[in-house]
Amino acid sequence: MICRMFPLLARCRALAALAAIAFLTAYACPPAFAQGDAEAQDGQASLRPEIRVRVTSPRHTVISSRVPGVISSILVRDGDRFEKDQVLAELDASALEIELKRATASLRRQELILKMTREQVEFQTKGELELDIARADVAQAAAEVELIRSHISKTRIRVPFSGRIGGVLAKELQFVTEGQPLLEVIDDSAMELEFIVSSQWLAWFT
Q1: pTM of the model
Q2: How many other CB atoms are there within 10 angstroms of residue 162's CB atom?
């Protein structure tokens, strides 16, 4: 229900705006009927328009998976409130954690080789070329570690603002691909009202 999607302040503002629109619809009349024409006044009730109002949020989006994997847990339900950067869902990261251990060990190995190469250069048993290659190998291994850590961080689904869950689009233990929708989220801190009225009504909104 829409009423679950508002915090108290936003709900009060929305209700106040709806009340103002209801007042205009009930008691105001279009300019064509505001000139004392008795016949027009009699037909005003039948010609009074019906206004359909939709409550929207400027920040309403769908959060998708940034890496493929199996959903290990979904920590929210429809209508739940969440805070900025709160973990809303998690993908299984066990395979990535094993890759991280392997990459970390490889980085350590390259660092030892670099240390040994520096010593050999000092004793002039190896040249600067071998030292540059050892440095490049360390940089490559370090980049691999950072890449895997980045993938692991993407298994924890977060949102960079506070709001409410508009819908849960996936299930636990489901395999998802990169880009597959997981959650619909709504920033309910500033809601907007959308409605369509006749151009003759513009005088009342300006």
Answers
A1: 0.67
A2: 16
